[in-house]
């Protein structure tokens, strides 16, 4: 079963392949040059933005205080886990 990191790598490769095709550049052209030239964000920043929006919607719900997700987020924040920073 593929893990999250493998899926993120596949998504990133597909995303960058599309950007490179649209720009008409060689496959060896560095990714950051392609992103700057096309003025679009990286896959990682898009994913983080989506995750942040999702969490903010959940947190804004009235019944969020009673959920197990709240307890998990509180634990992540108190232990200074990367999950606790969004």
What does this entry show, briefly?
The chain has helices at residues 4-23, 31-38, 43-59, 68-78.
What tags apply to this protein structure?
mainly alpha; elongated
Tell me the strand percentage band. under 5%
Biggest sheet overview? none
Low-confidence residue ranges: none
Radius of gyration: 17 Å
Give the ordered list of helices and strands. Answer: HHHH
Give the fraction of residues assigned to helices.
Answer: 55-70%
Count every helix, treating DSSP H or I runs of 4 or more residues as helices. 4
The geometry reads as elongated
Measure the end-to-end span: 27 Å
Average pLDDT for all residues: 85
Number of strands: 0
Structural class: mainly alpha
In words, what does this structure look like?
This protein has 86 residues and is mainly α. It is built from four helices and no strands. It has helices spanning 4-23, 31-38, 43-59, 68-78. Helix 1 (4-23) packs across helix 2.
Write the layout of secondary structure elements.
Layout: H1 4-23, H2 31-38, H3 43-59, H4 68-78
